[in-house]
Amino acid sequence: MTTSTATLPQADRVETSLLTVADRCDSCGSQAYVRVEFPVGELSLCGHHFNKSEQRLRDLAVTVVDERYKLEPPSRKLDENASSVF
To answer: What pLDDT, in 10s, does the model give residues 61-79?
Structure first.
């Protein structure tokens, strides 16, 4: 019996290392939400600067740690019993 496993491209693998507020964008100094690791070196980028070149960076990257989901506002759930005032 043979077993086949699909291998994700390096840039799509999930990393366990997390970015902190101390990680800064190498382009502008804002908080970094993405770390792109290359065969030699790495870049930390804010969401804006990663978005500008995302496809090219993913093509060249060994791994990408993407935490841009942290930029999404928390979902607001209305209490079913609460009334809305508009």
So the answer is: 999 999 999 998 877 655 5
Neighbours of 38 (CB within 10 A): 12
DSSP H or E run through 45: strand 42-45
- How far is the C-alpha of 43 from the C-alpha of 62, rounded, in Å? 12
Q: What is the pTM of this model?
A: 0.66
Q: Are 55 and 68 in contact (CB under 8 A)?
A: no
- Find out whether 38 and 65 touch, Cβ atoms under 8 Å: no
Q: Are residues 44 and 34 in contact, defined by beta-carbon separation less than 8 angstroms? A: yes
